[in-house]
Design brief:
The protein has helices at residues 35-44, 65-81, 109-118, 132-136, 154-165, and strands at 6-9, 48-54, 88-92, 126-129, 144-147. The protein is of the alpha/beta class and 166 residues long. It has one domain: Rossmann fold (3-Layer(aba) Sandwich), CATH 3.40.50. The chain binds magnesium ion. Magnesium ion (MG) binds next to loops.
Amino acid sequence: MSLRPCLFLDRDGVINHDPGDYTKNLSEFTILPTVMEALTLAKGAGFEVVLITNQGGLAKGLYTHQDVADIHAHLNDVCEENGTPILDIFYSPHHPSTGKSLSRKPGSLMVERACAKHQLDPARSWMVGDKQRDLDAASPVGVRGVLIEPNAPLLDAVNFILDECS
Ligand SMILES: [Mg+2]
């Protein structure tokens, strides 16, 4: 089986508006403009889409795994309706205030697991994030990164990536 290219995306500040604090539940989850257009372009170019997100608010007790599941079920529904289903979502529930974790970004374990589970090709894949740690979680695996400002248009980043690939 041939390996597939993937667009890895951070969640908060890339997919949904990040107010600078945690997105604790579905009522606080607002998908940013251009995201669906960007996913359509990326999928059309042959990229799978996988979310890689730190959810340290779980370790802090700010919200529950059910809150995260509700958000991700909603996001999956919206993406399905858009014709651009997300392949998988990986989240790390840990935070340094309560313990060390290998999965939490900038650790690369979530990206490594995604590549192994879904036969993804790191050399043809990209990470888009709004923090340097998003990119640092991908580069050891051989995945290139695009750093954007929080809540900036994902479409601009995807257009940049498609230009680089052409
Ligand atoms: Mg972020």
